[in-house]
Specification:
The protein is of the alpha+beta class. It is built from three helices and eight strands; from the N terminus they run E-E-E-H-E-E-E-E-E-H-H. Helix content is 32%, strand content 42%. Strands 1, 2, 3, 4, 5, 6, 7 and 8 form an eight-stranded antiparallel β-sheet that branches.
């Protein structure tokens, strides 16, 4: 099972988190740019919240980053992807690659990526004054529309989350394999 139904006012579906853990040297700037490029290609807006930074060791720092990517699919459905990064001993290192000196990042980190598909993100059902209309709309969406949109909206969100985790893994030189793709 890849989805969890939330009990929020506007029903939503949340993917299980994709988690990547890594300890070593990697290209943080390149990884950041690849993530931003992927999100832009898929029509997401990325918001970076204030981060926490404190000394971790004599050479590096502890860094906690939280990012939110949002995408309006239509007037009824909306995607949100949350990134929660935690870096320990984050510091730059100089390495020789292909005969050139380049600055990379050394750290131990983990990142959780979780996607949410929200239905009725504008609260159109709750704005109507008629209680019968609200219940009828919710029943119709839950029993008819959601079944059709499962493959059109929710599975592609799961794929987006997995593709983002794969981008991170590829910048850490970790093996990336996809067993199947929905839809």
């Amino acid at each position: 099972v890849i989805l969890m139904a939330d009990d929020s006012p506007s029903d939503s579906y949340t993917t299980w988190p994709a988690t990547v853990r890594y300890d070593g040297v990697f290209d943080f700037d390149g990884m950041y740019q690849a993530i931003v490029d992927h999100l832009r290609r898929h029509n997401y807006w990325l918001y970076e919240r204030p981060y926490k930074r404190k000394p971790w060791s004599p050479t590096g720092t502890e860094l906690i980053l939280k990012w939110t990517a949002e995408r309006k699919l239509d007037e009824y459905y909306h995607y949100t992807i949350e990134f929660e990064w935690h870096f320990m001993d984050f510091h730059p290192v100089e390495v020789i690659r292909e005969g050139k000196k380049v600055t990379l990042t050394k750290a131990y980190f983990w990142v959780n990526i979780r996607g949410t598909a929200a239905a009725d993100w504008q609260a159109l059902e709750t704005k109507s004054g008629n209680t019968f209309t609200k219940h009828l709309g919710k029943f119709f969406r839950k029993n008819v529309v959601d079944r059709e949109y499962l493959y059109e909206y929710i599975y592609p969100l799961f794929d987006d989350v997995q593709e983002l985790a794969d981008i991170i893994k590829s910048f850490c030189n970790m093996e990336v394999t996809r067993t199947h793709k929905h839809g």
